[in-house]
Amino acid sequence: AALGLLAGTLAGYYLGVFTAVEASALGFAVAAAYAVRVNGFFRRMRAGEKEVASMLHDLAELTRAGTELPAAVERLLVDPVGYPSLRESLSMYSRLLSLGKTPSAAQKAVHHPSWLVRVSFALLSISCETGGGYEQFDRLSLSFRRLLDSRRAIRAAVLPFAALGVSVPVISSASFWFLESMQSMGPGLAFG
Questions:
Q1: Which terminus of the chain, N or C, has less C-beta within 10 A?
Q2: How many CA atoms lie within 13 A of 75 on its CB side?
């Protein structure tokens, strides 16, 4: 829908319905609304990825203490401040286990925007079905922490290029607007 609106704005500009300033303002407004929506999605995804390693570590500690895995998942839900972005997924997983579903079936019902969270629930269900112990959870927790650290380093390395990718269209739009304004000021400035 946002792409269609932007295409309509450009068509309106070329047909003379919008001025350059109106078309740019409408384009920026659509892009800003889309960015806000996408940012919420990515914020939930990143929060889940940050919490999954500590969730697996806490599960390892609970199973090390002798708690069965379904009961350990229930105990994680008792903490009111723990894992806010994973609470819905943990609750669904725990509820389905308590209803008698297999861990694999419960894992398939878990929805989260992050593939890392979905993979962690898949590995959790495999561990539950095979009787895996806390050693597996400790290794998984460490692996997920390493993965998050490498993703953070890559994101930091790509940031200058992303800034360049955003600034070039903005500068191009500003220069286009400036040149069009200059052209409208006098007949002697023909750029075409």
A1: C
A2: 16
How does DSSP classify residue 188? T
From the CB of residue 168, how many other CB atoms can be counted at a distance below 10 Å?
A: 10
CA dihedral 21, 24, 30, 34 (to 10 degrees): -140
Separation of alpha carbons 91 and 95, rounded Å: 6
Q: What is the pTM of this model?
A: 0.65
Comparing CA positions, the residue from 154, 169, 157 lying closest to residue 31 is 169
d(CA 94, CA 74): 6
Which is nearest to 120 in space by CA: 169, 34, 49? 49
The model's confidence at residue 153, banded by pLDDT at 50, 70 and 90, is: very high
* Alpha-helix residue ranges (DSSP H) falling in 99-133: 103-108, 115-130
Cα(149)–Cα(14) distance, rounded to whole angstroms? 47
Residue 190: what pLDDT? 55
Quote the tokens at residue 55: 């969730």
Q: pLDDT tens, 98-107?
A: 888 988 899 8
